[in-house]
């Protein structure tokens, strides 16, 4: 008979939901490989507009994924350009 000790599991923190605003800034900065202060500031503005409900998170996510698929080495410039175009179409100025 094996003597196995019962270990009480610590309550796990709630996992962050995929695609939510929580962590959006970090996900964008990391995934898009933003390095310059003005790039990070733009992504902060994007996250702020999403939180304010002025910019749909679905639009940001689809543009993010599109930029990653098109340019895996440096996706940030494509993302910024495409998001500015998409946002202007719905009347949001970035």
Structure, explained:
With 94 residues, this protein is mainly α. The chain has one domain (24-89). The chain contains four helices and no strands. The longest helix has 15 residues, at 37-51. It starts with 23 loop residues before the first helix and ends in a 5-residue tail after the last helix. The model is unreliable at 4-16 (pLDDT under 50).
* Assembly of the depicted chains: single chain
SS elements, strand count: 0
The low-pLDDT segments are: 4-16
Task: Give the fraction of residues assigned to helices.
Answer: 40-55%
**Coarse morphology:** globular
Indicate the proportion of strand residues: under 5%
- Average pLDDT works out at 84
**Number of discrete domains:** 1
């Amino acid at each position: 008979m094996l003597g196995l000790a019962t270990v009480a599991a610590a309550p796990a923190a709630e996992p962050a939901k995929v695609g939510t605003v929580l962590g959006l800034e970090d996900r964008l900065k990391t995934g898009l490989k933003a390095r310059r202060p003005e790039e990070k500031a733009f992504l902060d503005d994007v996250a702020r507009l999403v939180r304010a409900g002025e910019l749909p998170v679905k639009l940001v996510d689809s543009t993010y994924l599109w930029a990653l698929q098109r340019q895996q080495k440096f996706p940030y410039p494509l993302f910024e350009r495409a998001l500015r175009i998409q946002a202007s179409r719905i009347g949001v100025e970035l």
